[in-house]
Amino acid sequence: MTITTGSDTTSPAAGPLSWVLASIVAFIVILPLLVLGLAVPPQVIVPVTAVAAGLVASLVTCWVRNVFTPGSSTRLLAAVGATTVGALVVAVGMFLGMVFLPGPLILQIPPAALALGGIAAWAAWRFRIPGRHLVRDALLSLGLLAAGAVVITGALYGGCMIIACSAYSGPVE
After folding, report:
1. How many other C-beta atoms are found inside a 10 Å radius of the C-beta of residue 92?
2. Model confidence over 109-159: pLDDT tens digits?
3. % residues pLDDT > 90 (the chain)
4. Which region, left, alpha or beta, applies to residue 6 given φ > 0 means left and ψ of -120 to 50 means alpha?
5. Would you say 84 and 54 are in contact if contact means Cβ atoms under 8 Å apart?
């Protein structure tokens, strides 16, 4: 059974399935990265974690939509870009939660993952185009994952160096 929405023919399971899978993947990405918060300041690790989870959740959602929607595909760069902007909003929400809601940071992970999954599912639905571009999408997905890994590593290393260098003023004489 298919439902026609505008020019997009989609399975009724594509939307909820993409949101659930994106939320699970976001949770799986957020949890180990936030553990780095024991060694990395929260000013660095929270936005990096949100962007990393947003990137992976967006790619998962786009591919779920591509599998369940024949004859169309998702504009990956637009969907990942929109999800990244949403991830930065989620990071601000996590910071506000850290400041105004005392408690362990682990309690903020499920709402953040659900929000990222919802943003990614919306972006994958919103940025659909007619035609299948699976090879291009696969290469673009691999490129985005590689670029994300480089940017995330650079942000962690650079952010820690800036904060550590500004906090350390040299030996006390």
Report:
1. 13
2. 899 999 999 999 999 989 988 888 888 889 999 999 999 999 888 887 777
3. 38
4. left
5. yes
Domain boundaries, the chain: 13-163
pLDDT the model gives residue 40: 74
The closest alpha carbon to 83, from 106, 65, 68, 98, belongs to: 65
In 3-state terms, what secondary structure has residue 3?
A: strand
How far apart, in whole angstroms, are the C-alpha atoms of residue 109 and residue 27?
Answer: 7
Mean pLDDT in residue range 93-111: 85
Q: Which of 47, 42, 52 is nearest to 120 (CA)?
A: 52
pLDDT bucket at 2, cuts 50 / 70 / 90:
very low
> Dihedral through CA 100, CA 103, CA 105, CA 109, nearest 10?
-90
Query: Nearest CA to 128 among 78, 67, 55?
Result: 78
Tokens of 79: 């969907």
**Cα–Cα distance measured from residue 74 to residue 44, given in angstroms and rounded to the nearest whole number:** 31
Q: How many other C-beta atoms lie within 10 A of the C-beta of residue 113? A: 23
